[in-house]
Amino acid sequence: MAQTFTASVAGIVERTEAKLRYVAMMAIQDVVEAAQTPQPSVKRTRGRFEVGKIPVDTSELIQSLTATINGGATQRGQLSYTTVISGFALGDTLTFTWNAAHALPMELGFTARNGRQVPGRHFVGTNAAKFSEFVAQRVREVNTK
Amino acid sequence: MNDLDISNALQKRLFDAGLATVVFENDDAAPTRPFLYCEYVPTEYADAALSGGQKTVRGYLSVIVVIDQGVFSSPAHALADQIEGLFPKATRIAITGGTVTISDAVVRLKGYQADGEYRLPLRIPFVAA
């Protein structure tokens, strides 16, 4: 009887951990995927752009994403995050970095040659701020299964 | 309560402090350094009431402290300290139809050099309801 109870608890723990991992993994992926959602460069849109999407002109910025897990091997490229996230275990630290020289000016804005301020695209900031929203969505998804 | 009210409430607090020239989004001014560049960045809209009327907006005010390149980062950090002092966590600002609350500590990001200037980014997180 005691063994059956222990086995039941172990089963519950195992299922709960699997759900936790799924929620964490998918919510992290939601953030990076949203940040990597491309939009055309302002050169092609006559100055129009959306906040929260990464601008693509030569694709240097979107391809400059590097992803690592616990400071280990680095994956580089537009979809590098998928490889790293698939190996995620609870307690791991994932790091995502955009290494292009113009990544920060694109994210936060810069001063144009005429001295005017060019607004940032906030493709990382806005999506990182939605993390708890993404977690809540994934929790609802898990609870309805 | 609308985005304009929220944005104005946050930016007015910064402007009224008179720490440096404040440049707002879509302002064609080409200011001399040091100056503060502001952007209102909403990240989440929600309404808890089934019938509506309980709108909540979350987001952050992006403030970039811009100083000359090559004068070290301390003038920018000194300005950033003063800005942080204007927006401590839990500060409440009344607006038409609601309140804007500073929801967490001001986040100071890594500064960077670009085209003769040094830019130190700050994020002031808020929730308006």
Total count of helical runs of at least 4 residues of chain B: 2
The shape of chain A is elongated
Q: What is the CATH architecture annotation of chain B?
A: 2-Layer Sandwich
Total count of strands of chain B: 8
Compose a concise summary of this entry.
The complex is a heterodimer of chains A (145) and B (129). By secondary structure, chain A is an alpha+beta fold. Chain A is built from 7 helices and 7 strands.
Descriptive overview:
The complex is a heterodimer of chains A (145) and B (129). With 145 residues, chain A is α+β, with helices and mostly antiparallel strands. Chain A has one domain. Chain A contains 7 helices and 7 strands, in the order αβαβαββαβαββαα. In chain A, strands 4-3-5 form a 3-stranded antiparallel beta sheet. Chain A has a two-stranded parallel sheet with strand order 1-2. A two-stranded antiparallel sheet of chain A has the order 6-7. In chain A, α1 (2-35) packs antiparallel against α4 (80-86). The model of chain A has no long low-confidence stretch (mean pLDDT 93). With 129 residues, chain B is of the alpha+beta class. Chain B has one domain (3-128): STM4215-like, CATH 3.30.2000.20. Chain B has helices at residues 3-17, 74-86; strands spanning 21-23, 35-47, 55-68, 92-95, 98-102, 107-108, 112-114, 117-128. In chain B, strands 1, 2, 3, 4, 5, 6, 7 and 8 form an 8-stranded mixed beta sheet that branches. Chain B starts with a helix and ends with a strand. In chain B, 33% of the residues are buried. The A-B interface holds A 51, 104-105, 108-111, 114-117, 119-120, 122, 125-126, 129-130, 133 and B 23, 25-31, 37, 39, 41, 43-44, 58-60, 62, 64, 66, 109-110, 112, 114-115, 117, 119, 121, 123, 125.
